[in-house]
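Sequence in, structure out.
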Amino acid sequence: MMLAAAGVAAACSSAPAGTSSLTRSALPSVAPSVAATVPPSAAPSAAASIAPTPAPSNGQAAGQTRTDAWGIEQVWVPAGTFRMGTDAAAIASLSKASPPPWVAQEFPSEGPAHKVSLTKGYWIDRREVTNRAFDAFVAAGGYTTEAFWSEAAWAWLSGKDATRLPLHCQGDVPEQPRMCITWFEAEAYAAWRAGRLPTEAEWEYAARGPESKVYPWGDDFDRARTNVVNSIGPKPVGSYPTGASWVGAQDMAGNAMEWVADWLDPAYYATAPATDPTGPATGTVKVEKGGWWGSNEFVARSAYRHYEDPPTYGDKHIGFRVASQ
């Protein structure tokens, strides 16, 4: 692999004790301590609407596409097996390439590399959820409709001024990825679309494929294929089509890193089920996958696990995409 250390002047951090120590002081964030001023109603809004539920369907081949009722294109990821994580030899090689300390400290959680089988195919968004797409959720009463939110998420939301969410972020350009949202907000949006956040295994398989490539396009980093190195901001989703994964999913190595469903336990891989793993049952922080604008080659790898943030946190580097059946 062609790896070189790259500075991350605007990288994400502001983590709980014991995790990554980069400073996020300049980043807009959704802090757990924000006081409520106008709590959302516990009753569904009269203006609320639920996204039409697509009939469950199975794709016929990897990369087959469909468009849901809200105009979001998804690609089919068939059932299959791949090698998840990073083996010890590769981690040793990465460590010799002078990665930033905050990256190197997270390498051990990528091991041991292990075979994972996903027994059911699934659809996953071709691109990261955009500001335009998320605006439809807001307009549909997403922040005032309890049905879209898990119990923990609704409790969090009830302590916020829902009229000020989501936070303004990087200009909120319609076709750029929706960032500055918490894991809870991403989860609610996915539920509104009759979907869910992908598990870490599903996300990584959609990025790496049966060959378990290092990056979505292959084993060598190519900065021309993704919005990562020396970037000063997000780009419209799909701006790097040559960086697409084996199923045609785009921006899985950069632009925004992405929330996935799993709680984080750095030791989970050692005992994880070989079939359809879903992560630990509980935890304090959520796994994030993929590189982000302004980061580096190391974190753009599909096996990288960025795991410093609780579900109440959000900033201008974290986005998401939706999986569904």
